[in-house]
Amino acid sequence: MLPGRGRDGRAARLASILGTRTAWSAVGDGEFFCPGCGGDRNYQRLTGHRRFTLLGVPVLPRGETAPVVECAACRRHFGTEVLDHPTTTRFSAMLRDAVHTVALAVLAAGGTCARPSLETAAATVRSAGFDDCTEDQLSALVEALAADTGRVFSEPCGAGLAIELHEALDPLAPHLAPAGRESILLQGARIALADGPYTPAERDALATVGAALTICTDDVTSLLAAAARTPS
Q1: Which of 15, 99, 102, 107 could form a disulfide with 188 if both were Cys (CB 3.0 to 4.6 A apart)?
Q2: pLDDT in tens, 64-103
Q3: What is the DSSP annotation of the chain?
Q4: CB burial of residue 210 (10 Å; 0-12, 13-18, 19+)
Q5: Which string of b and e fits 122-150 if b means at least 16 CB within 10 Å?
Q6: How far apart are CA 110 and CA 162, in angstroms?
Q7: How many C-beta neighbours within 10 Å does residue 217 have?
Q8: For residues 128 and 100, is the Cβ–Cβ distance under 8 A?
Q9: Which Gene3D superfamilies does this chain map to (predicted)?
């Protein structure tokens, strides 16, 4: 059989005559975390219209494609679900705010805002990204929080504080590895333990933190127990 005369040859000739082409149109842009580049990049959101082609010329519409996200750097296309992943900058801000909220919740649960707890909380918050955080600032915020909510110190985690914890932690939890979620809980545990054993209110606040981070109850109990056994 001569080259190009078989089934593969006929298919190749047909493909060179008939085909499809997608015309893309930009419908939005922004910044996202590109899975291909591994970092924050600009993107365009594209919609596509497919057409049959004859000898490379579009002739008949074939319908729309699902929208895609095109990275401005690597030009790769991704499904729009990649936009659900926070950018590195946004993720850092979410993590910083989460640690700050957990520190305030544990201090409020502790009641006395003892100096060792304040020092540990301030160091923890500074490490998370609030470089200018001080013990006095945290103490004032805890007092303002109590005055704003009418909450009494040392009581179990109330609805208002639980809502704040969930608002800070719920969006973050899906983007953290198990070790990252546990790290946030343990940072709160170290603040609670800085001035002595857990109080019932501190345990309640930390249990709320664990639930918001999607850590199961048994694991929360084990982590808090391990933290209490670890010398500070």
Answers
A1: 102
A2: 778 999 999 999 999 999 999 999 999 999 999 999 999 9
A3: --TT-SHHHHHHHHHHHEEEEEEEEEEEEEEEEETTTTEEEEEEEEEEEEEEEETTEEEEEEEEEEEEEEETTT--EEEGGGGGSPPHHHHHHHHHHHHHHHHHHHHHHHSS--HHHHHHHHHHHHHHT-TT--HHHHHHHHHHHHHHHTPPTTS---HHHHHHHHHHHTTTGGGS-HHHHHHHHHHHHHHHHTTSSPPHHHHHHHHHHHHHTT--HHHHHHHHHHHHHS--
A4: buried
A5: bbbbeebebeebebeebbebbeebeeeee
A6: 15
A7: 10
A8: yes
A9: TerB-like
**What is the pLDDT at residue 158?**
60
Give yes or no for a contact between 123 and 137, defined as CB atoms under 8 angstroms apart: no
Edge-to-edge strand list for the sheet holding 39-54: 18-34, 39-54, 57-71, 77-79
The arithmetic mean of pLDDT across residues 52-62, rounded, is 59
Residues whose CB is less than 8 angstroms from the CB of residue 205 and which lie 6 or more positions away in sequence, other chains included: 105, 106, 108, 109, 156, 157, 161, 165, 188, 192
Cβ contact 107:135 at 8 Å: no
What string of DSSP letters covers 78-109? EEGGGGGSPPHHHHHHHHHHHHHHHHHHHHHH
Six-digit token string for 62: 């074939």
Paired strand residues for 71? 43
Better-predicted residue by pLDDT, 75 or 3: 75
Q: Are 40 and 89 in contact (CB under 8 A)?
A: yes
